[in-house]
Amino acid sequence: MHTFLTKSEITNMFLKELLWSLSYMLDDGDEEIVTSICQGKNTMQSIITYMNSPLEEEQKPALRCAGQILVSDNHENIDLYMFNGGLKALDSLLVPTQKDDTTKEILWCLSNISAGGEHHIRALLSCETLMDKIYTLLTS
Questions:
Q1: Pick from 18, 35, 79, 105: most CB atoms within 10 A?
Q2: Which helix H or strand E contains 98, and what residues bound it?
Q3: Please, is 88 exposed, middle or buried when counting C-beta atoms within 10 Å of its C-beta (0-12, 13-18, 19+)?
Q4: How far apart are the first and last CA of the chain?
Q5: Could you tell me the pTM of the whole model?
């Protein structure tokens, strides 16, 4: 008797590998590649959605993709990330019970945002709950 996987099971099985593949493409740092990926139809929204996944196997590579995008010198890529709810996603991920390696990735993303333009810093500072969490980490 053969067991066949449903379309949903197949999609879930390959999603992790797809996210890691995107991360490795972004890791190159080539602005043209990063911008091409960022401008892809729903790509940014998908990355942010998977950052909020309850499954670490989806969350971790999506978070790495976000960090690679935020290293970009192209402020439009960072704007696109922030416009699609990226700061809100980072805020929801930064919790006291979070694993250290995930917290490190989140802080790397925040560092990359703060290294951007003045409007990125202002947007970050305007996220009061996120800033409260950062201040708490500094004093703990």
A1: 105
A2: none
A3: middle
A4: 57
A5: 0.86
Q: Is the pLDDT of residue 121 over 70?
A: yes
1 within some domain: no
Taking the C-alpha atoms of residue 65 and residue 83, their distance in angstroms, rounded to an integer, is 16
Domain harbouring 130, CATH code: 1.25.10.10
Rounded to 5, what percent of the chain is helix, strand, coil? Answer: 75, 0, 25
DSSP notation for 27-50: HT--HHHHHHHHTSTTHHHHHHHH
By the 8 A CB rule, do 86 and 119 touch?
no
Q: Number of folded domains in the chain?
A: 1
Quick one: pLDDT band at residue 96, thresholds 50, 70, 90? confident
Contact 38, 80 (CB under 8 A): yes
Residue 3 pLDDT exceeds 60: no
Structure-model confidence comparison of residues 125 and 28, the more confident one: 125
Q: Which domain holds residue 128?
A: 7-139
Residue 116: CB atoms within 10 A of its CB come to 20
Is the residue at 43 inside a domain? yes
